Amino acid sequence: SIDTKSKAVTVETPYGELIEPYDQLMYATGAAAKAPDVPGTDLQGVFELHTLNDAIALKSAAGTATRAVVVGGGYVGLEVAEALTLRGVPTTIISSRSAVLNRSLDPDIGAIVTEAIRGHGIQVIGSTRLESITGANGRAVGIETTNGRFEADLVVLGTGVHPRCDVAAAAGIALGPTGAAQVDDHQRTNVPGIWAAGDCAESRHKLTGQPTNPQLGTVANKQGRVAGMNIGGEDASFPGVLLTFVTKVMDTEIGRTGLMESEAQSAGIEYAIGWASGTTASGYMPNAEPIQIKVLAEKDTGRLLGAQIVGGPGSGKRIDVLATAIWAGMTGQEFAMSDLSYAPPFSTVWDIVMIAARRAADAATK
Length: 366
What we know:
- This protein is 25% helix and 28% strand.
- By secondary structure, the protein is α/β, with parallel strands linked by helices.
- The strands form seven sheets. The protein has a five-stranded parallel β-sheet. The chain has a five-stranded antiparallel β-sheet with strand order 18-19-22-21-20, with helices on both faces.
- The longest helix has 15 residues, at 217-231.
- 40% of the residues are buried.
- The model has no long low-confidence stretch (mean pLDDT 96).
């Protein structure tokens, strides 16, 4: 607990309670896994993946597993499904939406990613919710869902996390609409002398100004740096986020930055879309892989708002150049004429990111 009047924290230790006074307090409790409220989560063979010890236990169990089910189609769910498949364990992903990564990708890009995952031998069952985990002799043997029963002796719950803010709320630290601690651009909470950063703290979206809780390591590191500098007497600020991420499943790479369509609509921003399909290198090169890009640009101005990428090796990190352009407030036309590098092993003469951005801006300014 935190006593903000006497400026002290009470901590449980192996030797009893410890009361520690503070002048400045950094609240960085991170996030906790969301366990679905269904029967059977306490059976042997059911895992969450939140800590290194969780991963070690899961790796050990995978050595004897005959079939696995991953509940959840987010980042962690996809990475676990990839790892299990590569270890020879037949794996099924259960997703509550029709496509995976539904919180991070538009449905059309999500559908492309979902089909690519299926092409790698991972079964994806969409629009399905977990109802219970069934067991025998204390061990998991399958799951019951809204779409039927699936056999599994290894079940991984990847249904997301939530900010760990119970202690903060009890101390009077204000929480925002995301359930995380409200902070200003210096990472200060509403309580003097208390700061917060990471998965337990809100961020502001750079384009909309709306509160968000990205739960990304890049954001946590930057917020922690800002908070530490300010606690140490400097004057630093955190400028916000674009929710940029990159991940992969087998050789399919996925990236996203800026606004999805639903987010632009919620913010009242009118936009146009530019699509481009091509290859990661010049088509005649042996390393050329397919890639698809979707770009959003603001109506009338052509200002870049968001981008999503899916493709083979060499696709995912292309999201960074688009993130930089969006961060800088560039229009699609400006970005399309920027001086990007070219050589046949790396890209086409007009890199596909430039083509997609130009098409989005042209559609926005017609």
